[in-house]
Specification:
The protein has 517 residues and is of the alpha/beta class. Helices cover 33% and strands 26% of the residues. Strands 2-1-3-4-9-8-7-5-6 form a 9-stranded mixed beta sheet, with helices on both faces. Helix 9 packs antiparallel against helix 10 and helix 14 runs antiparallel to helix 15. The longest helix has 23 residues. It starts with a strand and ends in a 13-residue tail after the last strand. The structure holds xanthosine-5'-monophosphate. The site of xanthosine-5'-monophosphate has 16 residues, from helix 11.
Length: 517
Amino acid sequence: MQTKLDIILVLDFGGQYCHLISSRIREHNIYTELVSHNISPEEIEFLKEKFNIKGLILSGGYTSIYEQNAPKINSIILESDIPILGLCYGHQVLAQAFKGKVEPVTYEEYGITYVTVDKPVGVLEGLNKEEKVWMKHSDTVYSLPDTFEVLAHTNTCPVAAFMHKNKRVYGLQWCPESIHTEKGNHMFYNFIFNVCECEANWKMEEDTIEKMVQKLKTEVGNEKAIIGLSGGIDSSVATVIAAKALNEKLTAVYVDHGFMREGETEAIQETFSKFKINFVVVQAKERFIKNLAGITEPEQKRKIIGEEFIRVFEEEAIKSGAQYLIQGTIYPDIIESGASKNSGNIKSHHNVGGLPEKIEFKKILEPLRDLYKDEVRKVAKILELPNELINRQPFPGPGLAVRIIGPLTEEKIRIVKRSDKIVRDEIDNTILAKTLWQYFTVVTDTKATGVKNDTRLYGYVVVIRAVKSREAMSASFARISYDVLEKISARITNEIPEVTHVVYDITHKPPATIEWE
Ligand code: XMP
């Protein structure tokens, strides 16, 4: 008899991060499912037939529990003996349900905060007196009934973490899933193994690839498909999976829209010439540049690029007789484009929010749509993709077009290409490269005075952006040494005559995003 999997249910109270919580738990080889915040006891009973439900995590979400229609927890769940961990909004909802005092804050905490751990037990076991965490809240838990114990506080938040004295119920005002919460992973470990006593009996790799292949086979049937291949890891992995499912019924289409990095098209052609797939390169630079002429608004740029991609794919589909379009869309693209019920639109990723309304395909298929980048990398390793592909920096579909602020002129395109190559040359040579998520440049629409060849020059300001991240939902600016920055700055200003200033972006995500547009 097959033993049931241990499972943690993540209750979705909105916001962007509940899928990330799920992903963090799965990293510990524990299966998770995302369910609605008002899951009924009957639904829990139904899931119990398939799984051992070992714990519930209430996600962060809405800005205030006092907002109209703010999601509430089904109070019957609180009476069950399943361990519960409330995070951010989930922490407040729990406190409210247990008759604690939760009120709007006078001072809104947003970003990195240091909490004082008063009692390092349960979820906080093994933590220091002071811990760096990431918080965002407009309501605060001020007090709780005697059946609770306060485990941590900040200057403005008297109950930043709590536990029930007799039940396995915990609340954390911060987000352990954020990269900025230093010991977030440790907190999840404590909850799933020490509090919920889970057994790590699930492995993503075992069945994910086979399931994706089978699904594509069923969806496409006897017809044909094309796949948009940008050469980035997502579309490359999706291509290999689609090729396994469809063989010669698949054509991979690489669109050179003119905003690729220096040497990119050649590198991709070389990599994919080694695979047995139908591979087409479409030179579409002129049509993209023409459509983008004079456009300055970032969302408009993204939508024009998204639409033009589709038009190119439609033309290629006619040539190959394809009915379906496959894309390498991953979960953060969907979340950031505001496609999830409870998340806002941060930017329209070209392959999600940037799509036109009318599309001449039977359907768009997205085999990776539930995965994060680090999960895609794991799949890539199992598929034995070349290392140069697995370790490539993520590169946005709209390419360098979203790294040029203001109108896209030939001059700015040249500057961003050249400066990007300099940053890559200098960082690729250091051990730093392996630790960074992305490193690139942005050409701003601001000019600043400089002096070159003893003459005044009113030139471009170029930004160096380098970040660390695990899945792009949050990121921190990289602490690159001044020596490396100095070398990059000197090369950019020496090798690109139009640039007078080079600056370094020291903003985390949030509040910034990784790309500038
Ligand atoms: P942001 O700028 O939202 O970026 O912090 C998160 C990650 O997504 C990449 N990115 C994109 N990738 N199509 C893509 O395929 C897009 O339209 C797009 N926009 C941003 C970005 O490079 C970063 O890794």
